[in-house]
Write a structure and sequence with these properties.
Layout: E1 8-9, H1 11-20, E2 28-33, H2 35-38, E3 40-41, H3 45-57, E4 62-66, E5 79-80, H4 90-96, E6 102-103, E7 111-114, H5 117-124, H6 139-145, E8 149-153, H7 162-169, E9 181-186, E10 192-197, H8 216-221, E11 225-230, E12 233-239, H9 240-252
Parallel strand pairs: 1-3, 2-4, 2-8, 5-9
Antiparallel strand pairs: 4-7, 6-7, 8-12, 9-10, 11-12
């Protein structure tokens, strides 16, 4: 696809691009994005979120937008459910404030989930008790168990938070702290929950996620990735189950 930097993309344009990728519409999709690379949108973040919501929830699926607050670990409150400010940018902030979304109470790696209310409620249950930000028990592990996808819109696998969960599922050493730290979640009611959470940490690099793009070649070889475009942004739809199987194969060999 040739980029058109002057084009203003509409919701219908984004829906057509999603349809051309022939992605399933009845599973769970977690979307990481760069609005800057998507390009000019008719109503900015609202256009992209509306299109993603319509495409992935109309037939029973769930759309998840990461709304992380791990940057607040040094603050008294790590997650304030009344504050839509995230550490991920405009689409995440917009999703966190959206009236149709349900934000999880994962204190460091929350996500806002859209879809059928009953299915959403079951999906987000227990997130305030997750032992780490991307634990296999968390929504990140549920994406794997439900055969979901990670949608990377204009970003690389360095933003693929799900791979942290896979590392925990595989028991890869030196990935999270041995001891948890206490963090606080401020509820909409004003009350505060204190929870123990283990954090991402390695002894050999400041950010292990910067190594995640090295998996892409293997993901492609094993058919985990469907390519397309959202606006002007190169987009990868990544099969969560296949990615986990590939990483397991690499670990064992």
């Amino acid at each position: 696809m040739k980029k058109d930097l002057n084009r203003i993309y509409t919701k219908d344009d984004i829906l057509a691009q999603l349809a051309s990728m022939q992605l399933p519409r009845n599973t769970v999709v977690l979307a990481h994005s760069s609005l800057r690379l998507v390009g000019r949108l008719e109503k900015g973040a609202e256009t992209l979120l509306d299109a993603l919501m319509e495409y992935f929830t109309a037939e029973g699926g769930l759309l998840c937008i990461p709304t992380h607050t791990w940057a607040n670990l040094s603050k008294e409150i790590t997650l304030d459910m009344a504050d839509p400010t995230t550490c991920l940018g405009a689409l995440s902030d917009f999703a966190a404030a959206h009236p149709r979304g349900t934000r999880t109470m994962n204190p460091t790696h929350s996500m806002t989930v859209f879809g059928d209310p009953d299915r959403v409620a079951a999906f987000v249950e227990g997130e305030d008790r997750t032992p780490s930000g991307t634990a296999p028990e968390s929504c990140y592990g549920k994406i794997y168990r439900e055969g979901g996808y990670i949608l990377l819109i204009g970003v690389s696998h360095a933003r693929n938070t799900y791979l942290h969960c896979v590392e925990e599922m595989l028991g890869m050493p030196d990935r999270i702290t041995e001891e948890p730290r206490e963090v606080k979640i401020k509820l909409l009611s004003g009350g505060v929950l204190t929870r123990p959470v283990k954090c991402h940490h390695t002894s050999f690099t400041n950010d292990v996620s910067l190594r995640f793009p090295k998996y892409e070649t293997a993901f492609r070889y094993h058919g985990a990735i469907t390519d397309g475009f959202i606006g002007n942004a190169p987009t990868q739809a990544c099969d969560a189950v296949i990615m986990k199987e590939v990483m397991e194969l690499i670990l064992h060999n």
